[in-house]
Amino acid sequence: MDADSLLLSLELASGSGQGLSPDRRASLLTSLLLVKRDYRYSRVLFWGRILGLVADYYIAQGLDEDQLAPRKTLYSLNCMEWSLLPPATEEMITQTSVVKGRFMGDPSHEYEYTELQKMNEGDKVYEEEIVIRIKEETRLVSIIDQIDKAVAIIPRGALFKSPFGPTHVNRTFEGLTLSEAKKLSSYFHFREPIELKNKTLLEKADLDPSLDFMDSLEHDIPKGSWSIQMERGNALVVLRSLLWPGLTFYHAPGTKNCGYIYVGTGEKNMDLPFML
Amino acid sequence: MHCPSTKEQLAPLCAPGINLSDLKEILCAGSCLPLLRAQGPVSGFQPQLGRLQVGLAERGRGAEAPPNHRSRISTFLDPFPRIMATGALHCFPPPPAEPRPGLLWRQDAATCRASRTQKSLRRPQQSNSTVLTPSTSAQSLSARSYLFVYLFVFFLIPSMEDSTALEQEEENQESGEEGRPWDDRTAASAQDPLPGLSESPESERGPDPGPQPGSSPPRSPPVGDLAGPGAPPPPPPPEPSSPPPALAGPHLAAPGQSDQTSSGIPEAGTPRPEHLQQQSSDKGASTPHQTCPSKGNAFQQFQQTPGHLCEPRGANGDTSKQGPRASIFREEDSESKHQLDGAEPELPSEPEAAPSMLEMAVQSAKAYLLKTSSASGLNLYDHLSNMLTRILDERPENAVDIIENISQDVKMAHFSKKLDTLQNENEMLPTYEIAEKQKALFLQGNLEGADQELEDEMAEPSLPNVMESAFYFEQAGVGLGSDEIYRIFLALKQLTDTHPIQRCRFWGKILGREMNYIVAEVEFHEGEDEEVEEEDVTEEKDNGESEGEEDDEEELPRSLYKAPQPIPREESRTGANKYVYFVCNEPGRPWVKLPSVTPAQIVAARKIKKFFTGRLDSPIISYPPFPGNESNYLRAQIARISAGTHVSPLGFYQFGEEEGEEEEEVESGRDNFEENPDFEGIQVVDLVESLSNWVHHVQHILPQGRCNWFNPIQKREEEEEDDDEEKEEKEESDYIEQEVGPPLLTPISEDLEIQDTPPWTTRLSSNLIPQYAIAVLRSNLWLGAYAFCNGKKFENLYIGWGHKYSPDSYAPPVPPPVSQEYPSGPDITESDDPSVEEEKAFREAQEAAALAAEENEESEEDEDDYD
C-alpha cells in the first residue's frame, strides 16, 4: 500500500484483522516520508509486517520511476529506523528454502540446519553432518522476494507501459468496474511477466500492450489459491492469497484506492492442495 | 493508411523518377483516388507532368498578381504531388546547390504558356458556380479541364524544354525580387513560399515567424513541423491585424472568382468533410479563426489546401532527403493556419486542373479520416476534434504526455452512455441489498419495546462493550476497522434483542474463501435451549432405524464387526458445548446458530485441514471423512480454538464454591468457575513478563473429543443392558486408562511447545509510552488468536483462517490397514508340496523311526510337524 495514503489503506485492508497500532501508524507516517527523501524513491510502499516470535519486522519498499524495476526493500523493527536489505539472489532462495518455522524477530539470529553430505575419502564413502548457518536477514530477504513474486498484485490498468519501456503509474486509472473487479483476470502480478511470453499468439491477440504487459492471476497455480470477496456491500473487493496466508489485497472499485499488505508469519502454505 | 492495391498500381511510377518513400508519402497524404488519376499522366509523361504541375500553378501568376501566385505555387507544391516535383527534377536536373530556384524558374516558364490557354478555357465555366453552394457539376468540369491540361501540356513540352535552360537564371532573380515585395505587402503569411524557395528558407523565416508555421512543414524536416504548431499562438496577435485586410479585400472584391475555383473543384461535391475539417481546424488553431468568418473560411481553406499540398513538392525538390514528411494531421494543422495567412486575393486565377487533383487528395484524405469504423461506429475525424476540444477545455498539464489517455477517455465517454441502462442496475443490486439490511440494524433502536429492554439491560447487560475491546485491540495492532466493528456491535445487539441471551461476546471472525464468518459466543438463559434436545431425539431415531434394518436381514450372514460405541457429545452448558455459537457472514445478515459439537467431529477436525468456504451447508470433502458439513466443522474448530486460546489473567476467575464433590474433581476436574469479586488486577508488566500470570479458562479438550472423560467400555456394558439409555453417566471405575488433560485455570506457561516454538508471545502494546500500554498476548499455535489485558480488563479475540499452526506441512493420515477376511492359521493356509528329496528324507526318517520304535517303543518322533 502506498505510504502516502497509509491510513486509508489500512482501513480498507482491515478486514483481515491485521492492522497497526496507533503508535506504529504514526511512526510509519513520519519515517516513511523520510525514507522517501533519503533514498530518493519516487514512491514508497508499506509492504507489511512479518510476525516474529520476539519482534515483528516492518517492511517497506521503495520504487523508482519505472514501477517494474527491481524494488528496494527496507526493514525496521521499530518503524523508525530503516535498514536496506540486499537484493535477493537465486542462491539465497535455495539456501534459505531449508529453513522452517517462524521468524524470530532478530535479524542477526542464525538458523542452524544440519545437512547430511556424502563424503568421498579414498574408497570410503561416509556421510557427514554439516551444519549450515543461515542468518535470519538472508531468510527475510528471500521470503520477501518470494512473496513479492508470487502474490504481489495490482489491478489491471493501474500501471501502464510506455512505448519506451518503463512502466508508470497510470494517472488516469479510475478503478475497475464492479464486474471487472470480481474477475481474477483483472488483476496482475506486480512483477516482470513470466507467463506472458509463453502465451500463444491467439491468446495475446486481444491484449493491450500498454496495459496487459504482466501476468494475470487467472492461471495461477494452484488454481483457487486466491480468495476474492466483495466486502461492505460491493464497495470493496478484497483478495486474499491462500498460498501465502496473510497477504491481503484491497481495491475499492471505481476509485484509485488499491494496494496490498502482507501481515503474516512469512511461511508459505504448503498444505494448500489439501485444504481446498 | 494506404492500401496495397494502390501501391501496386503505382509500382510502374517508380521507375522513372519516383522513389518508394515518395509514394508512401503520397499515399499517406492523400489516398488512392488522386494517385490513380495521376497514374496515367505520370507514367506516360513523367517530366511533362511535373511541368504541367508547375505550369498550372504559374498560370495564374502570369496573368494576375504575380507575387501571390508565387505563394500559390509554393503552397501548391507543398504537401501532395511530390511525384511531379521529382518528375520535374528528373527532367531538368537542377543545379545541386540551388535546386529550388531552378524549379521555380522552370515553373514560371511553363506556366506562362499553360496559364494563358487554361484561363481562357476555364473562365466561363467557373463563373457559373456560386459561393456557398458548390455545384455538383463541378466534378465533371474539373475532369474535363484535366484532359485539356494534359493535352495542352503534351504539346508544349518540346518548346518548354528548350526555353527552360535559358531562362533559369532570369527566373531566379525574378523570384527573388518578387518575393520580397510580396512579403512586405501582405505582411503575412505562411504563404510566402516563393521567397522561401528562391532565397534561403532559413533566413527568410527568421524575420516573420508568425506566418511560417503554415508553410514551414513542407520545407523543414518533421521536427520543424512539430515545432510549427507549437509556435503559432504568439504570432497570431500581429497576424489578424494585417491579414484581415488581405483576406477581406481580395475576397470581397473577387468573391466570384474565389468561389469559382472552389466550385470547380471536385471537392465541392462532398461538402460535409470540409465542414468537419473546418471544425477541427477551428479547434486546432482557434486564434486564427476568430478573425475569419466561418463560411468563407471553408472555401478559403479549400483554395488554400491545394496550394498547401503542392508546396512541399517544390520544397521536396531539395528536401526530399529529409525523409517522411508530416502526417495528414499535421498538414491539416498547417492548413488551418494557411487559411489565415494565405487568404490571398488572387485565388480566382488559380489553375483548375491541378488543384482539383490536389484537392482530391485532400478530399480523399478527409474522406479517409471520416471513414466510420466498422467496429465502433466512430470516425477518426470526430475523435480527433473531440480530443482537441477536451484538451482545450481542460487544459491539462503536459498534454502531450497523456494524449493516449485522453484519447481513451474520449472514447470511453462515448460508450458510457450506451451502457448505463440494464447492466449497471443488476450489478448494484447486492450493494443495495446489504445496505438495506444494515439499515435495519441502525433502526432497531426504534423498535417497539425498546424501553423495556433498555431497563433489563441496565440491570444485567447481555451485550458486551465491543467498541471498548476493539479500542484495546487496536492498541495491540489487531482488529477490524472501526466501521466494521461497529456494525458487528449493532448486529450483536440485534442478536441479544431477538434471543433470550444471558451473556454474549464477540468471539471473532473466521475468514473463508467466499465469505467470512462473524462469530458470537452466547449463553442462553436457564432453560432456553430446547433446540439442542430436539436434535438429540433425531439422532436417537436414526440409531433405531438402522437397527431395524439389521433385524430384517437376519438370514443373511451378519458382520461380526461391531462399531465402537460413539462417544456421546457433551451436554449443553458443559465441556465443549458450554457456549452456543451464532455466526453470520456479514453484519446485518441473519444469525445462524451452530449445532452442538460431537466428540467425533472434534477428533475428525484434528485430522483435517480445510479452508472454510463461507457457506454453512457446504460439504466437507476430506480424508478422513468428516462427520457433518461446514457448520459442524466450523463449530469444532471454534471449540478447539476456544479451548486453546481463551485465557484470562490469573485470579480473575475462581472456582465456584458448589464444586465440592470429590468424585467429580477427580474425574473431570472442576468445570465451574466464577468471576472473582476480589480480583485486584495484575500489573501489566507482570503479565508481559510471565506467562504464568495467564490462565486458561476454557476446558482442555481431551484426545477423545470431550472435555470430560467418558469411559467407552463402561458404556458398552451399559448398552448391552439397556440400549435406549444413552445418557452418559459419570463412571467411578476405569477399565482403560483415563485421558487426563490439564485442569481448568492452568497457567499457560505449562502449554506445550510447538517444536521449539513457544506457544505464546507477549508484548507491550507500545514501547513509546509504556506507562499506559497494555499487555498483548499472541498465540503462536492458533495464528490470529489474541488476548489483551490492561490490568483489570481482558478480552480474547480470534481473527484468522481457523487453522492450527504447524511448522511441518500437513499430511493426511494414512488409510488404516486392510482388514483380514478370515483368521489365518495352519488349517487353511496352503503349504508347498514337498520336493522329492524331502519326501525321501521323510520316508527314511519314518523308516528309521519305525525301526527305532520297534527297538525302543517309548521314544516319540518329532518330525511329524514337518510341513
Automatic annotation (TrEMBL), chain A:
<keyword id="KW-0282">Flagellum</keyword>
<protein>
    <recommendedName>
        <fullName>Radial spoke head protein 9 homolog</fullName>
    </recommendedName>
</protein>
<keyword id="KW-0969">Cilium</keyword>
<keyword id="KW-0963">Cytoplasm</keyword>
<comment type="similarity">
    <text>Belongs to the flagellar radial spoke RSP9 family.</text>
</comment>
<dbReference type="GO" id="GO:0005930">
    <property type="term" value="C:axoneme"/>
</dbReference>
<dbReference type="GO" id="GO:0060294">
    <property type="term" value="P:cilium movement involved in cell motility"/>
</dbReference>
<dbReference type="GO" id="GO:0035082">
    <property type="term" value="P:axoneme assembly"/>
</dbReference>
<dbReference type="GO" id="GO:0044458">
    <property type="term" value="P:motile cilium assembly"/>
</dbReference>
<keyword id="KW-0970">Cilium biogenesis/degradation</keyword>
<keyword id="KW-0206">Cytoskeleton</keyword>
<dbReference type="GO" id="GO:0060091">
    <property type="term" value="C:kinocilium"/>
</dbReference>
<keyword id="KW-0966">Cell projection</keyword>
<dbReference type="InterPro" id="IPR055316">
    <property type="entry name" value="RSP9"/>
</dbReference>
